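Board notes (copied after class):
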Amino acid sequence: MKEKKVEHTGKKMPSLSLPRITLRPQKSHRWALTLLFTGIVVLIILATILVVTTITFILIRTGVINSQEEAFSDGTLIVILVASACLTVGIGATFLISRIPLKPVNRLINALNRLASGDFKARIYFGKPFNSHPTVKELTDSFNTMAAELERTEVLRSDFINNFSHEFKAPIASIAGFTKLLKRGNLTEEQREEYLDIIEEESLRLSNMATNVLNLNKVESQTILTDVSCFNLSEQIRTCVLLLNGKMEKRNIDLTLDFDEITVTANEELLKQVWINLLDNAIKFAPEGGRICVTVRTGMSDGRRVVEISNTGPEIPPESREKVFQKFYQGDTSHSSQGNGIGLAIVRRVVELHCGQVSVDCKNGVTTFTVILPHRQPL
């Protein structure tokens, strides 16, 4: 078996320029929608008064209504007539015209009902002139984005159930099969040890899958970072490497560690999950006899900690690089490699809780996951 090489260097790293996070500005034109509907109502009222006044004036001028009669001396009957006509015409005009601005509302309600019933292909488009208004366009974009995300999540959930069932079924079948062989007896000591090792390995695999599901549920429900302390980040990564050393030795993977002693203020237990998941992912996709490199450096401008874990092997397609951080997503649909699409989702959520960033890049047959963390957590 090829001996695994571990290199540790302590060279100084050059200054690092880190990207800044820009917040999307809030929309300021939504109040215009209220003015739009108010304007429509005002126009209906003005149009009604204009129409009724014009008709009344014409009737008086043509002699249908005699303004010299005693009944009209005080103008009371005319006022009553105009008011009644305005009320009648106004109600009719409002009923007919209000259907136009309410049509998008009805369409939105129908689309929401489709979503509520599980039809995630529902989309809305109001057409001209409504969709040209910034507020309506924002509503359309937000709804369609929400529907697309729900549809994607539903697809991923379905795939996850199928994949997770497959992942659970395989080790359970192995454990049951080798247990039956052990019960039959007539085995050599070497065979017994081999079967027991397989049972132990498959049991740990099941345990890890269940732990990942519980960890994902825990970090997703967590909104505030707790148990923050200052600790040696370099030592923590070395400990995680030792935990996975057996997996690397089985695949003859060379490991290079390149960092000084660096501290960070964070949740120690949560960050440990990040390094274990990223290292395990690198081991899973590195080829036999491949190479893994771990570097830790400090951004000279703001002191943020940057951890890079890279491995040789097949590159992630550009269209899948953002998806790998989505829960339940698996790039390998053939199940040729172990995994359930949860580990990297945990990584992203934990990094977000630490107000950090995580990304993936592929160049020249090397895949690199980069985690950027603030030196100290903001208060």
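Comment from the instructor: The two ends are 51 Å apart (CA to CA). The beta strands are 6-9, 228-232, 254-258, 263-267, 291-298, 305-312, 357-363, 366-373.
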